[in-house]
């Protein structure tokens, strides 16, 4: 049963990723990115990461993707005739070969390592959100604060960049 | 029980898709979307290892990656709007103002 769900989420997310890269119209690309994000969040559920699932749906789908769609619809882009780079085929071949090599390496490796301190039973007892919160506000507090400062900088940067330059407009009107 | 290599395989395929998208597409917004695909591939990898190695650190790094993706999207789209306002194009080949 879990294998079936995994196969569904994996196949659909890969197909949606390929469509995102290959579709012609930018809004269609954004919508297939939406499908990809939702199915990746399904993979998170299979891995017992409910909190990350909620964050993925709320932040990625609810905020980031809506931002992309807003900008796409604000710009009202026309689709280009030649929307791929002229060297596309020369890039695609090495990418497929390299990807196949990496896959063969991945399928052969055993992936063993030292186990951490939160086994699945402990996570299931109090819930994933509890475990993430305890870990975040004890061991990773500094990174959390750094991410907060980073987001503040990103907000200020976005506002400063997207602001209408007033003096330039006045000059343009005079001309 | 799904083996860990299945998750890493999905993640590797998604990452290659995003990388090809960054290199091949010419619309700047779709290049940013391909970067989002690559970040999602990294997230799958982190969460899968966090589950199989019984450690919470991977999920925390995935959370930070989502926050950074939000910041990157905001700043990147603001830059696109500035460029679009002056050049009426989002083609990456035409953005050569900073080229030496």
Q: What is the CATH fold-level name of the domain at 1-78 in chain A?
A: Four Helix Bundle (Hemerythrin (Met), subunit A)
Give a short account of the largest sheet of chain B: none
Most extensive interface: A-B, 84 and 69 residues
CATH topology of chain B: Helix Hairpins
- Total number of helices of chain B: 3
**Helix and strand sequence of chain B:** HHH
Return the structural class of chain B. Answer: mainly alpha
Low-confidence stretches of chain A: none
**What is the count of distinct domains of chain B?**
1
Number of helices of chain A: 8
Integer-rounded radius of gyration of chain B: 17 Å
CATH architecture of the domain at 1-78 in chain A: Up-down Bundle
Q: How many β-strands of chain A, per DSSP?
A: 0
| CATH architecture identity of chain B | Orthogonal Bundle
Give the CA-based shape of chain B: elongated
Descriptive overview:
- Chain A is an all-alpha fold and 175 residues long.
- Chain A has a domain at 1-78: NADH-ubiquinone/plastoquinone oxidoreductase chain 6, subunit NuoJ (Four Helix Bundle (Hemerythrin (Met), subunit A), Up-down Bundle), CATH 1.20.120.1200.
- Chain A has eight helices and no strands.
- Chain A has helices spanning 2-22, 26-46, 50-75, 88-108, 120-126, 128-136, 141-162, 166-174.
- In chain A, α1 (2-22) packs antiparallel against α2, α2 (26-46) runs antiparallel to α3 (50-75) and α5 crosses α6.
- The radius of gyration of chain A is 22 Å and the shape is extended.
- The model of chain A has no long low-confidence stretch (mean pLDDT 85).
- In chain B, α1 (4-24) runs antiparallel to α2 (28-52) and α2 packs antiparallel against α3.
- Chain B is 77% helix and 0% strand.
- The mean pLDDT of chain B is 88.
- Chain B contains three helices and no strands.
- Chain B has a single domain, classed as Helix Hairpins (Orthogonal Bundle), CATH 1.10.287.
- The chains are: A mainly alpha (175), B mainly alpha (100).
- The interface between A and B is large, with 84 and 69 residues.
